[in-house]
Structure formats: C-alpha cells, structure tokens
Amino acid sequence: MKKIVLIKNRSDIGAGTRGSDLGIDALEIAAINQNDSFFQDLEHIDVETHNESIYNKVKNRFGKRIVHVVEQCERLSEVVKETLDLGAFPLVISGDHSSALGTISGIKAANPSKRLGVIWIDAHADLHSPFTSPSGNIHGMPLGAAINDDNLAHQVNDVTETTRSHWEAMKNVAVKGQKVLASDIVFFGVRDTEAAEEAQIEKYKIKNFSVAETRFKGISVCLEECFNILADCDHYYISFDVDSLDCDLVSYGTGTPVPKGFDHEEVIKLIKGLLASQKVSCLEMVEINPLLDNKGNKMAETAFEVLKSVTADISLV
Long-range contacts for 258-264 (Cβ within 8 Å, ≥24 apart)? Predict the structure, then answer.
C-alpha cells in the first residue's frame, strides 16, 4: 500500500487576488464540520512561504513577486523530491497555481531519466511567460516555465533585465531547462485562454478535452485517448485547479472563476480513472480561495469531497 504524504503549500503570491493561502485551512474546516479525521490521519509537511512579500511594492510589472515565487518553487521542489525519494506519494495542496512549477521540478529532480506526462485539469492553460502575460501574475506561467518556452513570437511586454534574470531562474528550478515536453501535456476543461497561449497550443498540438467533448464522448473514452497521447511517458503528474469546476454550479471561491466547467462528480471520475493507470506519481490541488466564496465555504467543501474520494485510489498506485 502506497504511503501518502500531504504537502501543505500555503503560498498565494503568484496570484492576482489574495486568499488562496487560506485554501488548506478552508479544506480542514470542511473536514472538521464533517467530523472527518482526514487531515489528522495523513503525515504532512508544511512548506515555508513568502506570503509576507505581498506587502512589498511590486517592481516586476510582468513578473509580479517573481523573486519570491522562484524561491517558493525551489522550496516545494525540494519537499516533493524528498517525498518521492522515500518512495511515498506526494499529495500536494497549494495556494495559487504558480507552485505547480515547483512540484513538476521536484518530480523531475527525483526521476531525471523518466519522461513525465502532465494532466492539467484547469479552466486556464497557464502557458504564459513574462513576455506574453497580460497580467504579470505568475500563476498563469507555470507550464510556460516547465516547457522552457518564452513564446517570443507573441511577445507583447517589454521585460526588464531583472525580470528576465528571475524568469531564467524559474525555468531552471531543481533541474536545468525543460522539465516536460509540451507534447506530453494534456488539458481537461481549458476554456479561458489568450492568443499567445492559443498559439502555443496550436504549435505543440496540445490536446484539450473541453467540457463539452468530455461529456459528449464520455470520460472513459477521453481517458483512453489521453493515455494514447502520453503512451511514451513513464509517469504522470495531475494538477487539479478548482476553477476547472463550474463556478455557477459550485461557487466563486477561486481566484479566476470561469463558467461552464465540470461538476465535481466528473472530476472525481476523471482523477480516479487517471489513478487507475498506475502511472500517477503526484497529485496537486490548487486555487481554493474562501475569501471569494459566495456560498460560505462551498468550494472547499466540494474540493474536500474530491480529495476524500480519490485518496483511497492513491494508496493503490
């Protein structure tokens, strides 16, 4: 039976709106209200954060707080690598999605010779770089860093040398250069993208199983297609951003809510199907923001239901 280590990464400095650092606490409150000992039953590690940096003046317009995001990714990558080196399964709960670069880097550092497939369950593609980002928020850039592509053909921002330097550091966290091939990324539910990201998706032929396609074909058929795309990968990383869920159906308790997403039962079935492949080495959940929840603690309660439902399957990986 696979040992699970819960990694709590409360960083929210890569987001445009504060509050996702409280997502883990909101999940724990959801568990307490259900008399559930989930968070007491798992061994856990708390990753130190740089959340105090939100009080600093933003100097990097197109890479906001990037120096501290890089440090956070380095911290998280070390914890993920150590967990994998011990033969355990890292179950990561993060604040904002910029930390996914740290998780991916840690997985790659622990398995440098293995080819990693990324399954990105999200409303957003997160393929930006400081050169293309409309906001400068780094939670829109983790995959851009992971594939080591600045997308200069679609540059719109005049980036300072300081930001360039920190971005290079971000692309080289834990392992120098590319962590994952763009062709080894599969999207589920992506539906809010900018032109620069769409160009990357087209350039690399990244498959996006839209909500409509997933429902029309059925999750099992889409999973089979996903596995075919990632057939040459040795293992998978699943990144579950709660904004992949339908904000009108669930709640607006996330930083960048987008309508017409999945319901939580679909996400549960999807993640369980991925885990059944026996190739998943890490699962991450991100972007729960209780400060924005228009239904009390509904997003965290829903996310906890997903978490609880899939954890038993993780033990069998």
Answer: 258/123, 258/124, 258/191, 258/192, 260/191, 260/211, 261/123, 261/189, 261/191, 261/211, 262/121, 262/188, 262/189, 262/211, 262/214, 264/302, 264/303, 264/305, 264/306
33, 133 Cβ separation under 8 angstroms:
no
Q: In angstroms, rounded to a whole number, what is the distance separating the alpha carbons of residues 152 and 99?
A: 23
The top-level CATH class assigned to 4-314 is alpha beta
Other beta carbons within 10 Å of 264: 20
| Amino acid at position 206, single letter | I
Instruction: For residue 77, count CB atoms less than 10 angstroms from its CB and return exposed for 0-12, middle for 13-18, buried for 19 or more.
Output: buried
pTM comes to 0.97
Measured CA to CA, the distance from residue 220 to residue 277 in angstroms comes to 12
Element (H, E) at 114: none
pLDDT along the chain (317 residues), means of 10: 94 94 98 97 95 72 93 98 98 98 98 98 98 97 98 97 96 98 98 98 98 98 98 98 98 98 98 98 98 98 98 88
Given strand 89-94, what is the order of strands in its sheet?
43-47, 4-9, 89-94, 280-286, 235-241, 116-121, 185-188, 207-209
With contact defined as beta carbons under 8 Å apart, do 18 and 12 qualify?
A: yes
Structure token pair of residue 125: 């593609």
pLDDT of residue 51: 82
| Separation between Cα atoms, residue 117 and residue 293, nearest integer Å | 32
The conformation of residue 91, written as its DSSP 8-state character, comes to: E
pLDDT for 289 equals: 98
Domain edges within the chain: 4-314
According to DSSP, the residues that pair with 207 across neighbouring strands are 186
Distance CA 34, CA 36 (A): 5
